[in-house]
Each structure stands twice: as structure tokens, then as C-alpha cells.
Design goal:
The chain is of the alpha/beta class and 159 residues long. The chain is 33% helix and 22% strand. The protein has five helices and six strands; from the N terminus they run βαβαβββααβα. A six-stranded mixed β-sheet has the order 1-4-3-2-5-6. Strand 3 and strand 4 (72-77) form a beta hairpin. The chain is globular, with a radius of gyration of 14 Å. Mean pLDDT is 87; it is low at 155-159.
Length: 159
């Protein structure tokens, strides 16, 4: 399959609360192909947490959203109006993800943090805001499969 040549844009980088979110959004904008499996119009929130307690309290250190548009991606501060899902990430996981070199390495590490969560090494979680099948049909399933989060389509119900 041929990779699309995707563009990216970051909205108001000064609106982020943390330096880590600024670095992460800059990183993601350099690798828009990470989002190539998603359908146009897909939008999801990235919520960065300093601890499991912050996650349990739904009190992220910083939040931004990524929209897959016709040309690539748009990254904006804050939550999206109607996101498809929330990707919750520990700060420790984000620091390690920033060291990856391409879509495959990024996806595999993301899958590792989902499948082997650790409070010290890093963790991620997904909070679905739409029906599971809708999420799969929008391309998130292909990405999850690449990341090793889903072995096959049947595993989606364990998300």
C-alpha cells in the first residue's frame, strides 16, 4: 500500500499548558503518516496524565486533539467538540514515544504501553466516545492492529 504524503498543522502552540505537550504535538506534526489509517473527519483527544490518580480523577496535565482532514492532520489545544475517543497517556509513556523514529516504531511502542501498562515505565488507555464498530470502521482498528493492540477484528471488544 502506498503511503499518502500528508501535511500537518499545529494550532496555537502557546496555548498548551506543558512543555511536554508542545514537544509531543511538534513530534506528531513531523510524522502525520502515523494517522494515515484514519478516515477523513476522525478526531480524537490526547490527554496527558502525570499519574494514575490524575487519570482516575479525570484531571489531565494537558489536552489536545488531532483531526484527520483531507490533506493530513490538524493538531489543536484542548478537547475536540465531539471526539471519537480519548487516548489517555502517562507522561512517562509520552517521553519514550518522543524518541521513536517512524510510524511502525511509534505504533509498536504505543501497543506495548497498552498491553503492558506500568506506572513507572508508562501506560496508555482508550476511552471510546462512540460505538465500538463505528470506531473500527473509521480506521482506528487498522491502527490498533498495527500497534499490536488488536490481534484481529474480534479483539476490538476488549478495548
Amino acid at each position: 500500500m502506498l503511503e499518502e504524503n500528508l501535511s500537518s498543522q499545529i494550532g496555537d502552540i502557546d496555548a498548551y499548558k506543558t512543555d511536554l505537550a508542545k514537544r509531543y504535538t511538534t513530534f506528531l506534526s513531523q510524522y502525520p503518516e502515523i494517522f494515515s489509517d484514519l478516515d477523513h473527519g476522525s478526531v480524537f483527544d490526547f490527554c496527558l496524565y502525570n499519574s494514575i490518580d490524575e487519570y482516575d480523577d479525570q484531571s489531565p496535565a494537558d489536552v489536545f486533539n488531532v483531526l484527520r482532514n483531507g490533506q493530513g492532520i490538524e493538531i489543536k489545544p484542548g478537547k475536540a467538540n465531539e471526539s471519537d475517543l480519548e487516548l489517555a497517556l502517562s507522561v512517562d509513556a509520552v517521553k519514550k514515544l518522543l524518541q521513536t523514529k517512524d510510524k511502525e516504531e511509534y505504533a509498536k511502542l504505543l501497543g506495548y504501553f497498552y498491553n503492558e501498562p506500568d506506572e513507572k515505565k508508562g501506560w496508555i488507555d482508550f476511552v471510546l466516545h462512540k460505538r465500538t464498530q463505528t470506531i473500527i470502521d473509521m480506521g482506528y482498528g487498522r491502527f490498533a492492529k498495527t500497534a499490536g493492540i488488536l490481534e484481529d477484528e474480534d479483539d476490538v471488544y476488549s478495548l
